[in-house]
Inverse folding.
């Protein structure tokens, strides 16, 4: 997720067990090392060389904590190669777009075959029929739609939820991220809901249509749903986008009970937590969403997303379609469910997201989490490690975290910046946001050992 919000930007290194002088020195030396080793990246990423606004085709690429962007020559499996010839163990994996590795062979084959038979027809395909069945079998919901990004899937699903329930509002968790979905950019400032501070060009008061509560706060949820004016609660099962916040025991049961009791739909966004296992966090922990959203890795890195829903939601949507006047629905985009994406999704679902792949990811992620926690303990830092299946995160603050507010306070951007660049200089790429590391089916034990070793060396320097 891009454009990190800034609630805790001012966290001081000393509060995190690190001497500020050491942090400054480390960061300066690592930045210099990065600059020296990457003349080609530097030349290619200057604005005049690229022709792009701010030098990059997507401004999020500037959110990496680097002196200038790392320009990539290619990637395979769990390895990135940059234009200066460095081979890097990739634990970012496109912030989960390539959660199952770069160019998995079945996806690459399916794309090559489909490329010769048309890319976009806006008509159903044979692959598409199989994909619908695979989605229903895997995630247990009877009805599915395909969109191009997880942002779109969430946006369309929320529209349908409002139409079906006849209610205008949605409810989100403080600190959440569900993509570029306007109505989810609301945060708590103290106990007051406000438009999220970093939002650009939004002049509407989003709090009119969006309620926000802290994750894990059952009484607040109960109060917010009591008026029965909320169409849908949208949440990740574990907040992953603000420093990982796990659900406390009983939270999901309470969430489901309260949403059902108030006629509120429950949308579980598994775009990141599909790392939990082949059936997502919902499958692993028996959650029962009315609407299930999954984007990013579902087509192996080709833009595609899916959203599934229950018979009851489908019946409501039927009714809405029957009763509405003619005209655009505001749902769907031209290239969604195109032939290329459907071929890639079929290959991903049937040959890539296998139990065996997940077993490998889970085992190595556990090894990674253990190694990082060991280094933190060795240097007596007040930090912790969190994990959801193949997804691991080190947090430079004590844990586990309870909610979005605590997660905001746990962020320590200056410290994290120094660690990120130090890891990159030692051959390991982690996600630029909240220290996320993903293990894919192609990740090797040696790559995990390399990351643990590099992390240990860096925190050893910081802690003295
Ligand atoms: C939980 C969650 N939902 C939705 C999205 C949006 O995905 P996309 O950028 O592919 O639209 C993200 C992106 O990070 C996400 O983390």
């Amino acid at each position: 997720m891009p454009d990190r919000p800034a609630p805790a930007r001012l966290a001081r290194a000393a509060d995190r067990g690190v001497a500020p002088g050491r942090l400054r020195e480390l960061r300066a030396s690592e930045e210099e090392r990065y600059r020296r080793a990457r003349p080609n990246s530097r030349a290619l990423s200057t604005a005049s060389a690229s022709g792009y606004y701010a030098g990059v085709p997507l401004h999020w690429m500037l959110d990496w904590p680097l002196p200038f962007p790392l320009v990539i020559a290619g990637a395979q499996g769990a390895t990135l190669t940059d234009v200066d010839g460095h081979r890097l163990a990739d634990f970012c994996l496109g912030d989960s777009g390539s959660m199952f590795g770069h160019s998995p062979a079945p996806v690459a084959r399916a794309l090559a075959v489909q490329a010769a038979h048309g890319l976009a027809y806006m008509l159903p395909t044979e692959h598409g029929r199989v994909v619908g069945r695979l989605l229903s079998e895997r995630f247990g919901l009877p009805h599915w739609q395909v969109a191009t990004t997880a942002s779109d899937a969430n946006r369309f699903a929320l529209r349908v939820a409002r139409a079906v329930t006849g209610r205008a509002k949605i409810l989100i968790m403080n600190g959440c991220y569900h993509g570029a979905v306007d109505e989810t950019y609301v945060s708590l400032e103290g106990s007051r809901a406000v438009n999220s501070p970093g939002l650009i060009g939004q002049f509407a008061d989003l709090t009119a249509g969006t309620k926000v509560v802290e994750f894990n706060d059952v009484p607040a949820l109960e109060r917010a749903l009591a008026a029965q004016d909320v169409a849908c609660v949208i949440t990740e099962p574990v907040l992953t986008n603000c420093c990982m916040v796990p659900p406390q025991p009983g939270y999901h049961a309470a969430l489901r009970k309260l949403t059902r009791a108030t006629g509120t739909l429950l949308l579980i966004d598994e775009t990141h937590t599909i790392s939990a296992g082949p059936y997502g966090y919902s499958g692993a922990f028996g959650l029962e969403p009315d609407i299930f959203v999954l984007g990013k890795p579902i087509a192996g890195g080709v833009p595609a997303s899916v959203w599934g829903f229950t018979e009851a939601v489908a019946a409501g949507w039927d009714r809405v379609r029957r009763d509405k006047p003619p005209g655009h629905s505001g749902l769907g985009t031209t290239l969604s469910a195109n032939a290329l994406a459907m071929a890639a999704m079929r290959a991903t679902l049937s040959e890539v997201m296998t139990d065996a792949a997940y077993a490998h990811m889970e085992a190595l992620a556990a090894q990674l989490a253990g190694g990082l926690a060991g280094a933190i303990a060795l240097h007596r830092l007040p930090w912790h490690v969190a994990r959801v299946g193949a997804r691991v995160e080190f947090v430079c603050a004590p844990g586990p975290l309870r909610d979005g507010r605590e997660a905001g306070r746990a962020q320590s951007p200056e410290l994290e910046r120094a660690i990120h660049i130090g890891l990159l200089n030692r051959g390991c790429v982690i996600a630029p946001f909240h220290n996320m590391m993903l293990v894919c089916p192609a990740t090797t034990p040696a790559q995990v050992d390399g990351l643990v070793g590099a992390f240990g060396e860096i925190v050893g320097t910081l802690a003295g």
